[in-house]
Design brief:
The protein has 392 residues and is an alpha/beta fold. It has three domains: 63 residues, Archaeosine Trna-guanine Transglycosylase, Chain: A, domain 4, CATH 2.30.130; 111 residues, RNA methyltransferase domain (HRMD) like (Transcription Regulator spoIIAA, 2-Layer Sandwich), CATH 3.30.750; 188 residues, Rossmann fold (3-Layer(aba) Sandwich). 28% of the residues lie in helices and 25% in strands. It contains ten helices and 19 strands. The radius of gyration is 22 Å and the shape is globular.
């Protein structure tokens, strides 16, 4: 078996040698129009020496590299990659863990599988294909995934529809197995996860560490969880002994899921759910009511073209929270926008604090947990950033 070979312009092979997993179209000497989007390709330097193997994207990112050598992307290759991913999660204590049975198994470039996300919920793996090439291989990937799991994965659900171009006639569904009700746990707390209709793969697994931190800080405090979705932070605060938690989200479906998860853990009597716009709630709420506020909004800036508007959104909610939180209060504030780096986000929170006119100090920095690894050659993978600040 052979793949088409794309030659790089002389001098442009340096990024490949440095193991960056993306090849931009401007670095390719030619031949882009002759290759079908999603096809496996070999990438060579200008002399013709093959340096890497990847999948052709067809856009400004021409190729996403899966290996820095010449090879074939067959089931054996993916079985090897999945086995490596399982080994890391075993090292992290996430496999065979009675208290936590939901975690990320494959985090795209961080696990040397650009374009692929796999989250584990009990015995079900939820797969998202972020690139045409990965999507075309989805059935082979599902087989390799189950084979690598030593029997722990019984079903694979493909949830790629919202990520694919409009001309893809794709319907989400099970590639292997079928739907079964499962009890899902995170650090001993119960959650009902809807990977079929819910956001992303059904739950925001990347906030596990932050939720655990909040749990340890919540005893006796009044907690506001904005953009609450299905209540991960809310349940964690209640488990930590919060006096009361108010969850705010504009989605009725999310609020219903939040109330269900609170009830699953027996905390309903200390919880209030409010279905409204979080920005409006922050603006209208009385000062001093909450000792802890969580700001975990969706990505306000999904692309660099939206960056300025997104920064204004982050500034608004942080200013409102800093202005209204009780003296000595703790603010957990986050951004999952890749277009907003860690330093810029901290600067925006500082600008919000200046306008609110209160003393603010940083107590802790947050990022995604270790089952969302970041390749040292691809720092763009560090998308989640957060701060814990104290307001006097």
């Amino acid at each position: 078996m052979t793949y088409p070979t794309l030659k790089l312009i002389k001098g442009r092979e340096d990024a490949v040698i440095r193991r960056h997993p993306w090849i931009f179209s401007g670095a390719v000497a030619g031949g882009l129009k002759e290759i079908a989007v999603g096809s496996p390709v070999w990438v060579a330097d200008n002399s013709g020496k093959v340096l890497a193997t990847g999948l052709f994207e067809g856009g400004s990112i021409a190729v996403k590299l899966l290996a820095f050598e010449k090879l074939i992307l067959d089931k054996a290759f993916f079985l090897s990659r999945f086995t490596q991913a399982w080994e890391l999660r075993k090292l992290l204590g996430l496999t065979d863990n009675k208290d936590t049975n939901a975690f990320r198994l494959v985090h795209s470039e961080g696990d040397q599988l650009p374009g692929l996300i796999v989250d584990i919920y009990g015995q079900t793996a939820v797969m998202q294909c972020h690139s045409p090439g990965i999507y075309r291989m989805r059935e082979m990937l599902a087989d390799a995934l189950v084979a690598s799991s030593n029997g722990s994965v019984k079903a694979v659900y493909d949830k790629s529809r919202e990520l694919l171009p409009l001309d893809y006639d794709h319907h989400d569904g099970y590639l292997i197995g079928s739907h079964e009700e499962q009890e899902l746990f995170e650090q001993g707390l119960k959650f009902e996860v809807d990977w079929i209709e819910g956001q992303k793969t059904g739950f925001f697994l990347d906030q596990r560490d932050a939720r655990f931190h909040l749990r340890a800080m919540s005893a006796g405090r009044m907690v506001l969880n904005t953009f609450s979705y299905t209540g991960g932070f809310s349940v964690s605060a209640l488990a930590g002994g919060a006096a009361e938690v108010v969850s705010v989200d504009s989605s009725r479906k999310a609020i219903a899921g939040c109330e269900k998860n609170v009830l699953l853990n027996g905390f309903a009597y200390r919880h209030e759910a409010v279905c409204t716009d979080a920005k409006k709630y922050l603006e209208a709420m009385p000062s001093g009511r909450f000792d802890i506020i969580v700001l975990d909004p969706p990505a306000f800036a999904k692309h660099h073209s939206q960056r300025h508007k997104g920064l204004l959104g982050y500034k608004f909610i942080n200013q409102a929270a800093i202005k209204k939180i009780a003296s000595g209060g703790l603010l957990y504030t986050f951004s999952c926008s890749q277009a907003v780096d860690r330093q810029v986000f901290q600067s925006i929170v500082m600008a919000a604090a200046i306008e609110a006119g209160r003393p603010v100090s940083i107590l802790h920095h947050f990022s995604q947990p270790a089952d969302h690894p970041v390749s040292i050659y691809h720092p763009e993978g560090a998308y989640l950033k957060g701060l814990l600040v104290r307001v006097l």
